[in-house]
Amino acid sequence: MAKKPRMRATGKGGKGGKGMTFIMEENTLSPRIKTLPAYVDHVVGTTMSYYEPQVENYAKTNAPWNDQTTNARNGLTATSGKEKDAHFIVLAHQVPYGIWLEVRWSGKNAIIMPTIEVYGPKVMETLNKILDKYSGSPV
């Protein structure tokens, strides 16, 4: 359980000498604020790692084209990672003609953007829930 700040009253304060002034002797906010960047970094990285296989599986399962060799479907890969201060999930084709599956016929066979449209909101909802819990709990 988090420590409560100690406060002490000092003399008379306020208008006409009435009231009191309180001085906080122990800073309980700063230590928690200092842990926030590391906590957020951990939460975002863990969330990306959690969703990485789900994104890949969804893309492979829901790719709308008819397979001839299964190379395109099997070559869909999702990878999560971090570069500088940015976390990400990359979903990509491993076959050279993957770009044509995405853009030819006005995107009729596209799977990358539809997968992002499904999983983007799920990832953000998960992060919001976790970070909302942080705001109300001691570290």
Describe the structure in your own words.
The structure is a single chain. This protein is α+β, with helices and mostly antiparallel strands. The protein has one domain (29-135). The chain contains four helices and four strands. The strands form two sheets. It has a two-stranded antiparallel ribbon. It has a two-stranded antiparallel ribbon with strand order 3-4. Helix 1 (30-62) runs antiparallel to helix 4 (112-135). The N and C termini lie close together (9 Å).
Largest sheet: 2 strands, antiparallel
Task: Please tally the β strands and state the result.
Answer: 4
What class do helices, strands and sheet pairing give?
Answer: alpha+beta
Task: Quote the beta fraction.
Answer: 15-25%
The H-and-E topology, N to C, reads as EEHHEEHH
Give the CA-CA distance, first to last residue: 9 Å
Please write out the topology.
Elements: E1 7-10, E2 21-24, H1 30-62, H2 71-74, E3 77-83, E4 86-92, H3 98-107, H4 112-135
Antiparallel strand pairs: 1-2, 3-4
Helix pairs in contact: 1-4
Q: Can you give keywords for this protein?
A:
elongated; 139 residues; two-stranded antiparallel sheet; alpha+beta
Could you give a short description of this structure?
The protein is of the alpha+beta class and 139 residues long. It contains 4 helices and 4 strands, in the order ββααββαα.
